[in-house]
Design goal:
Elements lengths: L10 H17 L5 E3 L2 H9 L8 E3 H8 L5 H5 L8 H4 L5
């Protein structure tokens, strides 16, 4: 959880939780984070604390996997650039 429920009254909680999640993902060797919650997607991408790890909403990856036209264009709008080669089966 990114702590999104606290975004208005305690934004420091969101920054701490989101930054911590991104740090642990980096330490574990993750190439990205996938979320099913749009608020988590937004907060994890915006409040990383400099970790620069791509965050994906699960439907974006479904669109890529199904060959949906324009899916790569959506990914280019992220704050942290995704690794399109990795996502599309090319070399990481």
């Amino acid at each position: 959880c990114c702590g999104g429920a606290h975004a208005l009254l305690r934004p420091e909680v969101v920054e701490r939780l989101s930054g911590g999640l991104c740090l642990r993902a980096r330490e574990a060797g993750a190439k990205g984070i996938v979320t099913a919650c749009p608020l988590c997607h937004s907060n994890l991408e915006a409040h990383q604390g400099g970790h620069r790890i791509p965050v994906y909403y699960f439907t974006e990856l479904l669109g890529l996997a199904m060959g949906l036209e324009g899916a790569e264009g959506w990914l280019r709008r992220h704050l942290v650039s995704p690794d399109l080669k990795f996502l599309t089966g090319g070399e990481a």
